[in-house]
Amino acid sequence: MRKIMFLVLIVCIVIGAQTLFFYRGIYSAPPTNIYDIMDIPIPLHLPTEFVDVHGMGDGTVLIDSSHDNGFKPEELNLLAYRIISRGYSIEYLEANASLEERLANANAYIVISPATAFSSEEVEEIKKFVDNGGRLMLIDDPTRPVPESEDKMNTLSTAFGIVYWNDYLYNLKDNDGNFRYIYLTDFKDNSITKNLNKIVFYIACSISSLEKGLIFTDENTYSSTREVPGRYSPVVLTDSNVLAIGDLTFLTEPYNVFDNNQLISNIADFLTNTYADESTNQ
Fold first, then answer.
1. Rounded Cα gap, residues 42 and 177, in angstroms
2. CA-CA distance, 45 to 277, in Å (whole number)?
């Protein structure tokens, strides 16, 4: 009996020592600061009423969907409506369709975030299309989901001297509630930038060449890959009627805020070559 009591005593001493060493009393959590979400300033901009002033024409805008493109047709509803309002029709280029035949009946061609590369034959057909007066719009977006590790826009864009950078632009000083939602107020005079004062791009990439840029960031904007502030351009227009844009979200609702609506209409004018005032067609 004494041995048992002795063993129990030893066990109690060991447990007691461990408890005193590791357990320092009842935990009392520090006070938590409660923030009223109403006190957090979050920019909230809603689309305002917009009157789309435009000319009329007749033609076809062809949209590529043959390269595993990272977009949904409904994301183009605003742009599609503006195009149709100008008298043009919209068609989609499906996989296995003849690019040569479809371009022969089109006035403009739109390519958005392709996930498969353009072949050299396809690039030559598109170059012929542009050389013959066709209008080409390229749109890429850092947020677009693609089946492969990276998209293949540069397999087409570089044929026109345009390079899409694998980055996103951000501004920690002045933004629309998120450092990647950048304001743009620096515009080169052109029909694409007509009547623009301020637009917002939502996670846009930068595009070269800079000398062909139409819309530029301010000195507080950084590239995620270069990490230096600079004058970047997410919108480029070549002399041969090729328009390159580094954001898709601004085309969709409810992101058509500030002068984004005007930009969408200007793009529709470019694609259809229908201008309310021909003096603005540059």
1. 6
2. 30
Complete DSSP assignment for 109-144: EEEE--SSPPPHHHHHHHHHHHHTT-EEEEE--TT-
Q: How many CB atoms lie within 10 A of CB 160?
A: 21
List pLDDT tens digits, range 16-27.
666 666 665 555
Number of CB atoms found within 10 A of residue 50's CB: 13
Helix axes 260-272, 77-85, angle to 10 degrees: 50
Which CATH superfamily hosts domain 59-277?
Class I glutamine amidotransferase (GATase) domain (3.40.50.880)
Q: What does the pLDDT look like over 184-210, one tens digit per residue?
A: 999 999 999 999 999 999 999 999 987
- 55 CB burial (10 A radius; 0-12, 13-18, 19+): middle
DSSP 4-60: HHHHHHHHHHHHHHHHHHH--S---PPPPPPPPGGGS------PPP---------EE
End-to-end CA separation in angstroms for the chain: 106
3-state secondary structure 255-270: CCCCCHHHHHHHHHHH
Tell me the mean pLDDT in the region 203-230. 92
- pTM greater than the 0.90 cutoff: no
Torsion sign over Cα 214, 232, 196, 199: positive
